[in-house]
Design a protein that fits this description.
The chain has three domains: 260 residues, 2-Layer Sandwich (BirA Bifunctional Protein, domain 2); 98 residues, Anticodon-binding domain (Rossmann fold, 3-Layer(aba) Sandwich), CATH 3.40.50.800; 69 residues, C-terminal domain of ProRS (Translation Initiation Factor IF3, 2-Layer Sandwich), CATH 3.30.110. 35% of the residues lie in helices and 28% in strands. The strands form six sheets. The chain has an eleven-stranded mixed sheet with strand order 3-7-8-14-11-10-9-22-25-21-20, sandwiched between helices. Strands 16-15-17-18-19 form a five-stranded mixed sheet, sandwiched between helices. A three-stranded antiparallel sheet has the order 4-6-5. Strand 15, helix 9 and strand 16 form a beta-alpha-beta unit. It is globular and about 80 Å long. The two termini are 27 Å apart.
Length: 477
């Protein structure tokens, strides 16, 4: 609750994060180790994320379906690299209905295999392609170290799975969906991201190429916020997904997969939050505007509440809540809604009624800087403009923060210093041994090779050999 003291971000960012998630009633710890209960306020935020993404998926021709939670173990074993990558994270069912199963079932960690099996049944001709399917659901990965939203045994996500006639179409789809994620992140969540290709050692198990959007959190650590994978024909050959082409010749399809999860809620919290708690971008906030009526007695209430009711009706096109709790003070309410990150607060008291005004308080600018008194007339327009301004300012502030904490390095000593408190953008020779040594010595990992990287030549930051690619390195969640 708002009365509980939250650790300052500057004192302990991890404690601050955990406390905000609990106090703002986004989620709670489940009785099962490493799992979470997403509370209604957190689920409403996820629903808004879902809606924004789902609209984009359907606009690019994708449809939704649902596939089973249980996958035969033999399915995962068909794609050797895939099972090797996921085997430490699998939850396996061996008993059902009191009987030992003939074949163990895996609780899905991801659905490439079972969807590949179904695509082999459905796809027979070039006329059946492309197949563009997404599913919303939950998956289980047996994580040893967990953190609410960021890394839990069970989490919620969407996973897209597509099949194409040609390599070029599949590659185009892979990058199209990466762009969809970046567009959502920037324009809905106000989280700036860098789209790029993962290194060989960081790519998805079973993929030919993996791409991600990488975001800088408020402690300068990186977060992989969404991924898109070009799977080539690896799963198509493992599950014999073939089609007759225009020349009546059998061909294997080319497939992709891509996903974004409830981890993105963690991205929003850590990108925008402050010492008072959450700051939610208006476009995804469960509540965009909260109205606080202020009165001390029945006489004042009789004057204030009708105005509150009228304004509530006038602002009906916004996600709005009137806080009419009588057991707590207005000050408590202010702190409570600041903790929960509601973008805009409207205060209406007897003096405001007399003057025909309201007080507006922006969550992203605590104190006097974010407070103004405006006429009740045309309030709808003023609220709309303020929410647009908040959305834009949150994004601009996050971009500035990333720029101020990202540096190019000229030496390995300088590189090591940079990654202790930010991101390093530097030349890398492409050798996985250098990448692994950097990780061991600095705890920084290669986040991505940016898609907008310009051609050039340099020297690897670790070994000094010629390099043609620049990579973002950072400590990450």
């Amino acid at each position: 609750m708002a009365s509980e003291k939250i650790t300052l971000r500057s004192e302990n960012f991890s404690d601050w994060y955990n406390q905000v998630v609990i106090a703002a009633e986004l989620a709670d710890y489940a009785p099962v180790r490493g799992c979470m209960v997403v509370r209604p306020y957190g689920w409403a935020l996820w629903e808004n994320i879902q809606a924004a993404l789902d609209q984009r998926f359907k606009a690019t021709g994708h449809v939704n379906a649902a596939f089973p939670l249980f996958i035969p173990m033999s399915f995962l074993e068909k794609e050797k690299e895939h099972i090797e990558g996921f085997s430490p994270e699998l939850a396996v069912v061996t008993i059902g209905g009191g009987q030992v199963l003939e074949e163990p079932w895996v609780v899905r960690p991801t659905s490439e295999t079972i969807i590949g099996f179904m695509y082999a049944k459905w796809i027979k001709s070039y006329r059946d392609l492309p197949v563009l399917i997404n599913q919303w659901g939950n998956v289980v990965r047996w994580e040893m170290r967990t953190k609410l939203f960021l890394r839990t045994l069970e989490f919620y996500w969407q996973e897209g799975h597509t099949a194409h006639a040609t390599k070029e179409e599949a590659q185009e789809e892979t990058l199209r969906m990466l762009d969809v994620y970046a567009d959502f992140s920037i324009n809905e969540a106000a989280v700036p991201v860098i789209p790029g290709r993962k290194t060989e050692s960081e790519k998805f198990s079973g993929a030919v190429d993996s791409y991600s959007i990488e975001a800088m959190m408020g402690d300068t650590r990186a977060l992989q916020a969404g991924t898109s994978h070009f799977l080539g024909q690896n799963f198509a050959k493992a599950f014999d997904i073939q089609y007759l082409d225009h020349h009546n010749q059998l061909q294997h399809v080319w497939t992709t997969s891509w996903g974004l999860s409830t981890r993105f809620i963690g991205a929003i919290i850590m990108t925008h939050g402050d010492d008072q708690g959450l700051i939610l971008p208006p476009k995804v906030a469960p509540i965009q505007v909260v109205i606080i009526p202020i009165y001390r007695n029945d006489d004042e209430a009789s004057r204030v509440l009708p105005v509150v009711k009228r304004i509530q009706t006038e602002l009906g096109n916004f996600r709005l809540k009137v806080d009419n709790r009588e057991e707590v003070t207005p000050g408590f309410k202010f702190n409570d809604w600041e903790l929960k990150g509601v973008p805009l607060r409207i205060e209406i008291g007897p003096k405001d009624v007399s003057k025909g005004t309201v007080a507006l308080a922006r969550r992203d600018k605590p104190g006097k800087d974010g407070r103004s008194f405006v006429p009740q007339e045309n309030l709808n327009l003023q609220v709309s403009e303020l929410l647009t301004s908040i959305q834009s300012d949150l994004y601009d502030n996050a971009v500035s923060f990333r720029a101020n904490n990202t540096h190019e390095s000229e030496s390995y000593a300088e590189f090591k210093d940079i990654v202790t408190h930010g991101w390093a953008y530097t030349w890398w020779c492409g050798n996985s041994d250098c990448e692994q040594k950097i990780k061991e010595e600095t705890r920084a990992t290669a986040r991505c090779i940016p898609l907008d990287e310009r051609d050039g030549m340099g020297r690897c930051i670790y070994c000094g050999e010629p390099a043609t690619e620049k990579v973002y390195f950072a400590r990450a969640y």
